[in-house]
Automatic annotation (TrEMBL):
InterPro entries reported for this sequence: ASHA1/2-like_C, START-like_dom_sf
Family statement drawn from the similarity comment of this UniProt entry: Belongs to the AHA1 family.
Domain Activator of Hsp90 ATPase homologue 1/2-like C-terminal stretches: 12-111
Protein name as annotated: SRPBCC domain-containing protein
Source taxon at top rank: Bacteria
Pfam families to which the protein is assigned, alphabetical: AHSA1
Length: 112
């Protein structure tokens, strides 16, 4: 909740049960005051290495996509590879690209 601010949004609620078949819910408050909710289920959890989970916006439950995070140690640093697949269309791909880029940039500033 401290560092994730995609598109200037704030995380106002985050519930995470990070284990295989565990669920999560994240609620974002957008700059215009509207709130949006995303949730899903963890498919694969390898501590300090890999996280795979589904991604479903509450307003469009028919579109379930999948996110994979890979972490690779590199000396005192860590490489993060994020893949978000099974998105509905090009517009959704672009929205998520911007959102993830903002979120990762926020994380980089947070850990710097």
């Amino acid at each position: 909740m401290t560092w994730m601010h995609p598109g200037g949004s704030d995380v106002v609620r985050a519930e995470l049960d990070v284990r295989v078949d565990g669920r999560y819910v994240i609620v974002y408050r957008k700059p215009d005051g509207n709130e949006v909710e995303v949730g899903g289920r963890y498919l694969e959890v390898v501590p300090d290495r890999k996280l795979v989970f589904t991604w479903v916006w509450r307003y469009s439950p028919e579109h379930e996509s999948q996110v994979t995070l890979l972490l690779e140690p590199d000396g005192d640093a860590t490489w993060l590879t994020l893949t978000h697949e099974r998105l509905a269309d090009d517009a959704q791909c672009e929205d998520h690209r911007r959102g993830w880029t903002d979120g990762i940039d926020s994380l980089e500033r947070y850990v710097a």
